[in-house]
Amino acid sequence: MMGRGCAAGRRRSLLGAFALAGVMALASGCGSPVDFYRPGEGGADEPVVGLGGAAPYVRPRPGRPRAADPPGAVPVAPAGGRVYAATGPGMIAPGARDMPARLYVADGRGIEVIDPRTLRLVGRLGAGVAASGVVPSWDMRRLWAADTVHDVLVPLTARTGRRGRPVKVTDPAGLFFPPDGRAALVVAGRPRRVEVRDPRTMRPRASVPLPCAAAAGDFSLRGRTLVLSCAAAGALVRVDVPGRRVAGTLRLPDGARPGDVRLSPDGGTFFVADAARGGVWAVDARAFAPRGFVRTAPGARGLAISRDARRLFVAGGGTLAAVDFRTRRVTARWPLPGGGDAVPGGVSSDGRALWLADGGGLVYAVSTRTGRVLRHARLRGRPAGLCVHPQPGRYSLGGTGLYR
């Protein structure tokens, strides 16, 4: 008995000595075994984002990579098995929470920056850049302006608006980032291809030839497939992202003109806007085959998803329609100001407003509940693209408002 008691006493003494040594090591300037970051730094899923800062909304997982590690270590599978589980109201990634809400309007001559609360012009970026669209980077800390006139992508720091060195890219019709963040996929109109590039430097890595000229698209549930739409050819193309090859082509019925693409919340269906037929196609994500058509209004071309992921907004031809994902029925049709051919730029963080822009120089927000115009601004230029930034999500997939 005395031997066991002495042994226990020695173990307690040793534990106490180790604890004291740990405290002395920390006091002497040795680093903590847990990485601490100032607010706004660190990854979205880090165990500690910042002392005194907001806690991350994603539950930390064992063995998470540090902020300095490559972004490819971020989990690809959506939380809870739902595609948009991390894009609900207010779920801004920690790294983007300190960024002011802004509207970035590409008007073919530059990018006008607007405060969505006051609708005041607060800046102009990329003067001399014939931007046709603005796309957030995978980590949402950078914006890429696509200039199809000068064949360049221009990097812009999201927080400061500082312009970086343009990257030469032939006819950048679309820019996407796989969920793992390991690559940038630049969709080129001429020649028809997908260029695989470094997501930070945009240095080319590989090229995937396409059978038709594509632009809009979205990723499958696991992000292994990118489905692109070819408007002129009336077709969809399925690209195997890891294999860097075209895995299939789907010809839609004659007369179809596919536009924007969105994945359903359950990951089983791609919805494709069709301006010519005035509605959206439902395409089985696994079989890559049509599974129905929902008629909304003539000119349907742009798509956006509500913050609760229950409705699909379809814009175009002077009409905004709301489609219920579960029943695949139109639940509302609202006229848009002036009957213009508006394109959606994104849903507000709280989910109450959908921002749109039309070529006539109007940028406005409509209520996602009633369709009523909440506020609007008239610009001098002719908007060609609209980006609402930042938006809820763990990361950006590029395109027009694609987040997971």
From TrEMBL:
<dbReference type="InterPro" id="IPR015943">
    <property type="entry name" value="WD40/YVTN_repeat-like_dom_sf"/>
</dbReference>
<dbReference type="InterPro" id="IPR051200">
    <property type="entry name" value="Host-pathogen_enzymatic-act"/>
</dbReference>
<keyword id="KW-0732">Signal</keyword>
<protein>
    <submittedName>
        <fullName>YncE family protein</fullName>
    </submittedName>
</protein>
<dbReference type="InterPro" id="IPR011048">
    <property type="entry name" value="Haem_d1_sf"/>
</dbReference>
<feature type="signal peptide">
    <location>
        <begin position="1"/>
        <end position="27"/>
    </location>
</feature>
